[in-house]
Amino acid sequence: MERTLVLIKPDGVRRSLVGEVISRIESKGYSIVGVRMMNADRSILEHHYAEHQGKPFYEPLLEFMSSGPIVALIAEGNRVIEGFRSLAGATDPTVAAPGTIRGDLARDQGTKVVQNIVHGSDSVESATREIAIFFPEGM
Ligand code: DAT
Ligand code: MG
Question: Which atom of ligand 1 is nearest the CA belonging to 92?
Fold first, then answer.
C-alpha cells in the first residue's frame, strides 16, 4: 500500500483548516496512518526542501514554514501520492482549480513565498525520504 507525506503548513493551522484538510483526505477514501503536530526547526526544513536550495523563494519558504506549528500526516492508499497532489491542486492558489484544497482555501497573499495550505510528496522516492524526516521513529 502506497504512502505519502502531507504537511498542513502554518497558514492552514493558523486558519483552523486542520480538520478540513484531514476530512478531504478521508472523504476521498485514504487512511490517515500517522499524525504529528510540531514546530519544524530549520534543520528539518533544510532537509525537507533540499531540492529548492538556491531558489529565490527558498529563504522565505523556510521562514514561512517555521512561522508556526505544522501538522505532519502520513496518508495511505493505492496511488495516494498522485491522488493527494490532485486533491491539493496547483502550487499557485490563484490558478488552482476550484474543488481543490489550494483552489478553495488559499489565495495570493502578496508574499515572497506562495502560501498554499498543504504539502504533498511528489514521488515514491520523495515520500519515503520525507516520511523518514518527519517520522524518524517510524510509523
Ligand atoms: P509543490 O508544493 O506544489 O510541490 P514546489 O515543490 O515546487 O511546489 O515548491 C514548494 C513550495 O514553495 C510551494 O508549495 C510554494 C513555494 N513556491 C514554489 N514555487 C514558488 C515560486 N515561484 N514563488 C514563490 N513560492 C513558490
Ligand atoms: Mg514539491
Answer: 15
